[in-house]
Amino acid sequence: GKEGLKYLSSFQPFKVLATETLSEKALEADIYNAIPTEKVDGTCCYVTTYKGQPYLWARLDRRPNKQAEKRFKRFLYSVEDCKEFIWNVEEDFKPVPDTWIPAKEIEFSNGNPLPDENGHMPGWVPVEKNSKQYCWHSSVVNYEAEMALVLKHHADPGLLEIRPVSLSELLEQTLELIGTNINANPYGLGSKKQPIHLLVPHGAFEIKNPPTLKQSDIVSWFEGCCEGKVEGIVWHCRDGCLIKLHRHHLGLCWPLAETYLNSQPVVISFNRNDYDCDFGPKSLFHQFSKLDGQRFDRLKDIKFDD
User: Fold this and answer.
1) CB 266 within 8 A of CB 299
2) Keywords assigned by UniProt (predicted)?
3) In this structure, are residues 127 and 141 in contact, taking their beta carbons and an 8 Å threshold?
4) Which one, of 165, 131, 139, lies nearest residue 151 by Cα?
5) Which of 59, 83, 102, 279 could share a disulfide with 285, CB 3.0–4.6 Å?
6) Cα separation of 174 and 45, whole Å?
7) Chain segment 58-95, per-residue pLDDT in tens
8) What does the CA dihedral 24, 173, 284, 195 come to, rounded to 10 degrees?
9) Burial bucket for residue 118 (CB in 10 Å: 0-12, 13-18, 19+)
10) Are the CB atoms for 178 and 39 separated by under 8 Å?
11) pTM for the complete prediction?
């Protein structure tokens, strides 16, 4: 029936708002024993094999073409309780590159990927070395050295660390690309002249003192404590299910002037001698290697010498 309505984010007469009660899905996934982590504001990426080596892939959703979108909207707005909407996968979607692959969570029917409740088919395309379209993605990987620039916790508590990580260590993981030219740069990274982008593995920032699962507690946690100055919470359930809550779902503001991510010092660990490849002088890898061992009070304080 009309279950589709509450998910429609692309044309927004509907606002998605959280309810007081936990969803069936959350309870089935055992959210009470899940690990709550910070939802980081960037664009989603994936590391998997391409041309025989680990590659970074950018998120690309297959979307319906105009005619199909019209049909789909008519179905959603129709008053009769239609049974279901039938997609014609061959004809209803805008073309995507040949290298496109569907995301793992997608359902299939007769060997064809099925769209989600928004009419989108989430998927991925590989980020080529000198890609114009995905130039910020390609700035955080070096395929010769098979490395990615990653932000996560340092072994010392309360300290963040930026360091190169082998792409093979990240195989089959999803990550968030954050930085100067992504989503209006909520963390204030870099500058127009010297853009900085980094990858954050999903689930990297576990929340130390999470709220209970009552809506009022979650709201006061977001509004009242330093650790709550985040875009949202993602609960990682034991069965692999992810339950996501964005501040907007509670009617709260984002981005914020001061974020939790920027309240922590960060150290750069990048020993050039570990890599026998030549990083171009303009590359992020070269710039970060020159800052090896340096510590900054906040991510937004990182600057490269000209």
Assistant:
1) yes
2) ATP-binding, Ligase, Nucleotide-binding, RNA repair
3) yes
4) 165
5) 279
6) 6
7) 999 999 999 999 999 988 888 676 667 889 988 999 99
8) -20
9) middle
10) no
11) 0.91
